[in-house]
């Protein structure tokens, strides 16, 4: 399939949705139109690829989508694509439609599937990082991360209003099973007193000590931002019960932000990022480059081999942990 002039590209979104995915689809569709390449949207991620759920998209089909959250192509977690048989069916559908390259917008799971597919069938694939978790190696930002951060700080600011009025402590759980990027960045942005992330287990005694110190310093409220995957307590409710028992002077409450972090209109940052990465993905394919993820490093669009993006981990910024410790005095 490789090294032929590309005239037909397909694009899909896969895994968890993130704000800005529509802006990325729009950029791919319009760049294809600009370079006079046919563009097919695949509905429901890899599952739609297996079932041949494709539709040709022109530049007007993506109008008014740049400001919309979610993904107009829908997304899915496809069990069938995990098997060789499923991927073979997907390849047959692609051949039937005459598609010569695939752009996958999603997280590391989606990139793993895309990479396997490209190796098995010698098929050109480009990855565009779309996930709110920012947990992909090789890019400083994934599409949707900035919007999720802004959503979290808006909500935490509101929780702070009521926490201060009642002199309460709130444990606020945010998304991030394996990575604490949302908790750490939004925690600093919202002025959280403590931030608990999967990458660092400070231990319960130290947490209690820090919370006592915070109370003694005259603070009238306390916000602890907790990543879903933090290692210190079993879950945010058990954690808050433990703190309530050991620090009875506090009135402790819990708020789990959940899926609202995935939705909403993307920020300007995410729209611009998605636009840059979507256009670059198409241009790379037209230059016969493939097997890479497009990402952002030092504000520049870069390419990273898909294999590296999958295998590497996105380390937490230790400097941010230090900043948070200083500012929570
Ligand atoms: P997010 O991090 O936002 O959840 P993700 O892309 O990591 O996004 P996953 O559910 O891990 O989401 O993966 C999406 C889909 O990619 C899976 O449902 C499956 O179809 C495909 N996929 C994941 N891992 C593999 C794999 N090892 N082999 C083949 N396909 C895979």
Structural class comes to alpha/beta
Number of helices: 11
What fold name stands as the CATH topology of the largest domain? Rossmann fold
Low-confidence stretches: none
Function: Catalyzes the phosphorylation of D-fructose 6-phosphate to fructose 1,6-bisphosphate by ATP, the first committing step of glycolysis.
GO biological process, one term: fructose 6-phosphate metabolic process
Main location: cytoplasm
Binding site for ADP: 26-30, 160, 191-193, 219-221
Structure, briefly:
This is ATP-dependent 6-phosphofructokinase. Helices cover about 40% and strands about 20% of the residues.
Structural summary, described in words:
The chain is α/β, with parallel strands linked by helices. It has two domains: 8-144 and 266-311, 3-Layer(aba) Sandwich (Rossmann fold), CATH 3.40.50.450; 145-262, 3-Layer(aba) Sandwich (Rossmann fold). The protein contains eleven helices and eleven strands. It has helices at 21-34, 45-51, 84-97, 108-121, 145-166, 181-189, 204-216, 236-246, 268-286, 306-311, 318-327, and strands at residues 8-13, 38-42, 54-56, 101-106, 125-129, 168-174, 194-196, 222-227, 251-256, 292-297, 300-305. The N and C termini lie far apart (60 Å). Adenosine-5'-triphosphate (ATP) is lined by residues 14-16, 46, 77-78, 81-82, 106-110, 112-113, 116, 131, 133.
Outline the secondary-structure elements.
Layout: E1 8-13, H1 21-34, E2 38-42, H2 45-51, E3 54-56, H3 84-97, E4 101-106, H4 108-121, E5 125-129, H5 145-166, E6 168-174, H6 181-189, E7 194-196, H7 204-216, E8 222-227, H8 236-246, E9 251-256, H9 268-286, E10 292-297, E11 300-305, H10 306-311, H11 318-327
Parallel strand pairs: 1-2, 1-4, 4-5, 5-10, 6-8, 6-9, 7-8
Antiparallel strand pairs: 2-3, 10-11
Bound molecules: adenosine-5'-triphosphate.
Adenosine-5'-triphosphate is lined by residues 14-16, 46, 77-78, 81-82, 106-110, 112-113, 116, 131, 133.
């Amino acid at each position: 399939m490789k090294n032929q002039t590309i005239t037909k590209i397909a694009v899909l979104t896969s895994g968890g949705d993130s704000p800005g995915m529509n802006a990325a689809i729009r950029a791919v569709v319009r760049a294809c139109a600009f370079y006079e390449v046919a563009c097919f949207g695949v509905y429901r991620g890899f599952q739609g690829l297996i079932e041949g759920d494709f539709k040709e998209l022109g530049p007007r089909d993506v109008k008014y989508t740049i400001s919309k959250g979610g993904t107009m192509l829908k997304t899915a977690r496809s069990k069938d694509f995990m098997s060789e048989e499923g991927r073979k069916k997907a390849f047959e559908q692609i051949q039937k439609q005459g598609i010569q390259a695939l752009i996958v917008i999603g997280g590391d799971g989606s990139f793993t599937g895309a990479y396997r597919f490209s190796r098995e069938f010698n098929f050109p694939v480009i990855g565009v990082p779309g996930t709110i978790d920012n947990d992909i190696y090789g890019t400083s930002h994934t599409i949707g991360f900035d919007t999720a951060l802004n959503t979290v700080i808006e909500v935490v600011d509101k929780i702070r209003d009521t926490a201060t009025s009642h002199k309460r402590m709130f444990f606020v759980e945010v998304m991030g099973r394996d990575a604490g990027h949302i908790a750490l960045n939004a925690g600093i942005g919202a002025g959280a007193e403590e931030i608990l992330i999967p990458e660092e287990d400070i231990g319960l005694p130290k947490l209690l000590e820090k919370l006592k110190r915070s109370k003694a310093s005259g603070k009238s409220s306390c916000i602890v931002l907790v990543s879903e995957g933090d290692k210190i307590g079993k879950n945010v409710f058990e954690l808050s019960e433990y703190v309530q028992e050991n620090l009875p002077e506090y009135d402790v409450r819990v708020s789990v932000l959940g899926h609202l972090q995935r939705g909403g209109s993307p920020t300007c940052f995410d729209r611009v990022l998605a636009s840059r990465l979507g256009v670059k993905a198409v241009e790379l394919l037209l230059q016969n480059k493939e097997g890479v993820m497009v990402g952002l490093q030092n504000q520049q669009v870069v390419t990273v081999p898909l294999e590296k993006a999958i295998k590497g981990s996105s380390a937490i910024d230790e400097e941010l942990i230090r900043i948070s410790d200083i500012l929570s005095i």
